[in-house]
């Protein structure tokens, strides 16, 4: 029963995550797919550079809420279904990972989505809001100081994984499945930003506010 519940929650989270708001909003506003403009990424930063602040803000908020909704959905499953089994398999972590996978590889849009930063933020804030808040503030500070969104995103994801794992080991709250999910989420952000990392090292990465 626990495995079936995990599969259902994971599939639902993936389908919710696959609703890519940057693609939907860009088609509604300009008639064009955001993936054909700017950096080609289906995310809030490309929306900002291509269509402006309001569409970018809407995309960011909706992508964050998407991550929040999937983790909350999983927590509802746990509370209503009950049982230690669901808690042991870390259902909210599985749902959060599936939401990010849906955003990155959306079934509705040819499996070509965004980089998962905003959705990951929604997930981590709902899983552990204290660490999530610390990482968010640190990431925003890095972005403000350097004007590199990619740098803040990558460092923030790595920071969350490290802090979360340290906290779990110190408190003795070691959940292998949850740890694996967190590590995969962090790795996904780094991998999806590999081209940005290369440009950062070469000094050719676009800064926030610049036009591509």
Structural notes for this entry:
- 75% of the residues lie in helices and 0% in strands.
- It has 212 residues and is mainly alpha-helical.
- It has one domain (2-202).
Low-confidence stretches: none
Distance between the termini: 50 Å
- Overall spatial form: globular
C-alpha Rg (nearest Å): 17 Å
Number of domains: 1
Number of strands: 0
Q: Average pLDDT, to the nearest integer?
A: 92
What does this entry show, briefly?
With 212 residues, the chain is mostly helical. The protein is built from eleven helices and no strands.
Topology (SSEs and partners):
Layout: H1 2-17, H2 21-29, H3 44-51, H4 53-81, H5 84-88, H6 91-104, H7 117-127, H8 129-146, H9 149-171, H10 176-192, H11 194-202
Record keyword descriptors for this entry:
212 residues; mainly alpha; 11 helices
């Amino acid at each position: 029963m626990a495995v079936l519940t995990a599969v259902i929650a994971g599939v639902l989270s993936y389908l919710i995550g696959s609703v890519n708001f940057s693609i939907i909003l860009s088609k509604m506003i300009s008639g064009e797919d955001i993936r054909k403009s700017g950096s080609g990424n289906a995310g809030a930063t490309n929306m900002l550079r291509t269509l402006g602040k309001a569409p970018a803000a809407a995309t960011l908020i909706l992508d964050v809420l998407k991550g929040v909704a999937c983790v909350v959905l999983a927590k509802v499953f746990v509370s209503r279904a009950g049982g230690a089994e669901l808690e042991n398999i870390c259902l909210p972590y599985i749902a959060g990972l599936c939401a990010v996978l849906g955003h990155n590889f959306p079934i509705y849009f040819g499996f070509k989505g965004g980089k998962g930063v905003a959705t990951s933020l929604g997930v981590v804030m709902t899983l552990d809001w204290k660490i999530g808040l610390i990482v968010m503030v640190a990431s925003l500070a890095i972005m403000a100081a350097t004007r590199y969104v990619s740098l803040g995103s990558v460092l923030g994801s790595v920071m969350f994984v490290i802090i979360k794992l340290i906290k779990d080991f110190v408190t003795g709250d070691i959940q292998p499945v949850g740890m694996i999910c967190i590590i995969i989420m962090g790795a996904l952000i780094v991998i999806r930003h590999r081209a940005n990392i290369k440009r950062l090292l070469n000094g050719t990465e676009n800064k926030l506010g610049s036009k591509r």
